[in-house]
Amino acid sequence: MFKSHPKGLIPAALANMGERFGYYIMNAVLVLFLCSKFGVSEELSAGIYSAFYTSIYILGLLGGYIADKTRNYKGTIMSGLVVMAVGYVILSIPILATPQNSMGLLALTCGALALIALGNGLFKGNLQALVGQMYDNPQYADKRDAGFQIFYVFINIGGLVAPFIAPYLREWWLGTHDMLYNASLPALCHSYIAGGEAMEGLENLKTLMVACGGDITNLATSCADYLKIFNEGVHYSFLASVAAMLISLTIFIFTRKIYPTPAKKEAAEVAGYTEEEKIAMAKEIKQRMYALFAVLGVVIFFWFAFHQNGTSLSLFARDFIDTSSIAPEIWQAVNPFFVIVLTPVIVWIFAALSSRGKAISTPRKIAIGMLIAGLAYLFLAGYSYMMGYPSGEEYRGLAVDAQTQLKAGAWVMIVLYFFLTVSELFISPLGLSFVSKIAPKHLQGLCQGLWLTATALGNSILWIGPLMYNAMPLWLCWTVFLVVCLVAMGVMLGMVKWLERVAK
């Protein structure tokens, strides 16, 4: 699998793996953490999540511009890791949210998220650009797709481990205070603190508080104590993210000399171009940029559907999946697990088809990926319809016994993430490969930033998922995502032949 690839691939992938570890801790807990920490609504929490992830990817444009302008990809990457580490340090400080300081703490939390987003913008796209530059060497050109798939595997090794960290630390911290974890209890505690005995679901609160080791003779104190301990455990998980940033920075510093330094080579090449060659280059660059924007327009809708794993699908796991032995954040690990297991299989299939003269072009692979993403939501919509699942808001109004009867087994999330992961492997690493192939040499960082911007635009509308989740029967919510995937697939298929010509 690693044969005949440039020697800088694995060190770059390892550096990225550490950063992705911190990212996936955040991805696993952010929406649920904001709800449990500040008592905000799921819609507001998802809105902050959406804004944060939009910023992460759209700031890739700034990072790409800086690296292209200065021709200092390596320095920009290292700066990004340092800025991200500072953001995670701020998040790790366990200050108790009270009615008096809640707004200030929320602003501080958003400021820390802004630092993480900025650092990610400086880091992510430029590291991908460095990987692409390795494959500009004709010796490795035919391995480009496979190289990005290998790179993607290492991303997901960090993603596989990270979702276990926050639940482990949170439950360990609760255990040291003779408390137990329950996904529904923080929201009920906030409701009681805000509304007292008049709150809806008071009996559910008392039942769960007793089950989790709390004292119901003074519910106000018990709720405050539970929220304090619950959230302190999550804060401590961000210390693991700080350590991951430092490990990534160390790996990159010690291996930076083996990565390409394109500035000197390109300066010599440009000096030798004739006027006719410059005109032809300008025309080719225009065609390549048109193709890039066409693909980006399609993948916006993939990320809108796929990144529901941090919003509406996390809420679904919390509400409708039996989490008595598995915290809802753990489901975030299923996707990277499948990436690691399935990538060698998919790489082998693509290589076998290529050796038989039946290679599938990258644009066509992306279209197939959209179809597979649609199958994931077709499965979930059909299952939700058969189970008669109501909206999330209606579900939470049911008694505890009624909620328990509607709980699904773990297999539902496993099947869902299997389809979503296969679709991801057809789109995300191959999309990165496509961008690196068609990007003009002097705009490689910026073009990777444009890919991240498409992800940002998809993330900017993630809030629609929780809104639908709480407003309509779940089968209808998931059907909307099914339709989005199928329409995007149709558009991509309509452009395939043109994209194949441009990418030659």
What are the salient characteristics of this protein?
single chain; 504 residues; mainly alpha; Growth Hormone, Chain: A; 78% helix; globular
Descriptive report:
This protein has 504 residues and is mostly helical. The chain has one domain (15-263, 278-496): Growth Hormone, Chain: A (Up-down Bundle). 78% of the residues lie in helices and 0% in strands. The protein has helices at residues 9-38, 42-70, 73-91, 102-134, 144-176, 185-195, 202-211, 219-255, 262-271, 275-306, 312-320, 334-355, 362-387, 392-396, 400-405, 410-438, 444-459, 464-471, 474-502. Helix 1 runs parallel beside helix 5 (144-176) and helix 10 (275-306) runs parallel beside helix 17. The longest helix is centred in the middle third of the chain and has 37 residues, at 219-255. It is globular, with a radius of gyration of 24 Å. The chain starts with 8 loop residues before the first helix and ends with a helix.
